[in-house]
Amino acid sequence: MIAIGWMGCRVAPPARPAPPPPPDDLVAWAERSCACTDLACAQRVDAELAVAMPRVDAAALLVDPDLAAVAIAAKDRAIGCLHARGVVPMGFAPLAMASARAFAAQQCACRDRRCVTAVYRFRILRFQHLMSAPIGDRDRATLIAANYQGTRCREAFADPAPVPSAAEVPAP
To answer: Which residues, including other chains, have CB under 8 Å from residue 76's CB and lie 6 or more apart?
Structure first.
């Protein structure tokens, strides 16, 4: 008679992915995006981005050039990595839309042409770089509305003013 016994072999449970980084740590998001080696991981990270990005302070990114430079480089790197895994990274769309709304609000907070010109002139490039992310049709309407609002606020001041210096850009 042969006795066959169970040896107590255990199969290790599948590894759980690390928890998502804080929303405002775009460098960590880029690292997480670039760590993906397959489509499923990239899709999961993109879905996590869509949840986290609405909590990023887009207004602060428009105001602080150093913070914006780091965030824009990280966003662009993450988008590139996700694209490389076959994903169109829509997860950054909420950040793009928040940037559009913040840019319009900063222009509309001005009470004279000098202020609105300064905000527009010294923040437009940061806004454009933050906006450079894939967006869907639904987000296009938000973008158009925010752009229209900002344009209306800029055009509300009829008399031209001298071009302000960077030091005259108001804090939010």
So the answer is: 132
| DSSP SS3 for 1 | coil
Identify residue 170 by its one-letter amino acid code: P
Q: Where are the beta strands (DSSP E) in 4-104?
A: none
Residue 149's SS3 state is: helix
Number of residues written out for the chain:
172
| Placement of tokens 């804080």 in the chain | 22
Q: What does the pLDDT profile of the chain (172 residues) look like in tens digits?
A: 455 444 455 555 555 556 666 667 899 999 999 999 999 999 999 999 999 998 889 999 898 888 889 999 999 999 999 999 999 999 999 999 999 999 999 989 988 888 888 888 888 888 888 888 888 888 888 888 888 888 888 888 755 555 566 666 666 5
